[in-house]
Design a protein that fits this description.
0% strand, membrane, mainly alpha, 117 residues, flat, transmembrane, transmembrane helix, 5 helices
């Protein structure tokens, strides 16, 4: 990338990397004896690895990574809305905060210029 990466893009990439690492850990613990779900564990591990790879693409200024991150954020928002409809108001609001902030940062004027360069 020719331009300097905006702080917002760096912040989203860091959050995505941490989220991916967290998903991997949760996946590992869920398949260990006494874990909560033998089926969700492998899914979370794969999802976490993909999330980390996408975050590395964001660090490198790859537009495909921005698009994939936006898709993941929209999916997270849909999950948050589902929680709202289930009556889990605070969980739904909490689950929507980071995706909304992330989308705003990824499609800000500075981020758009960065990903075009």
């Amino acid at each position: 990338m020719a331009g300097t990466r905006p702080f917002g893009v760096t912040l989203v990439a860091i959050i995505a990397w941490i989220n991916g690492a967290w998903d991997i850990l949760v996946g590992i613990f869920s398949i260990l004896p006494g874990g909560t779900s033998i089926w969700a564990g492998p899914f979370l591990i794969v999802f976490g690895i993909i999330t980390i790879l996408v975050s590395l693409g964001l660090f490198g200024g790859r537009n495909w990574a921005r698009v994939l991150t936006a898709i993941l954020f929209v999916l997270n928002l849909l999950g948050a809305v589902a929680l709202l409809f289930q009556g889990q108001i605070w969980q739904g609001i909490g689950g929507a905060i980071l995706p909304v902030i992330g989308l705003a940062l990824l499609f800000s004027e500075r981020a758009n210029a960065f990903f075009r360069s």
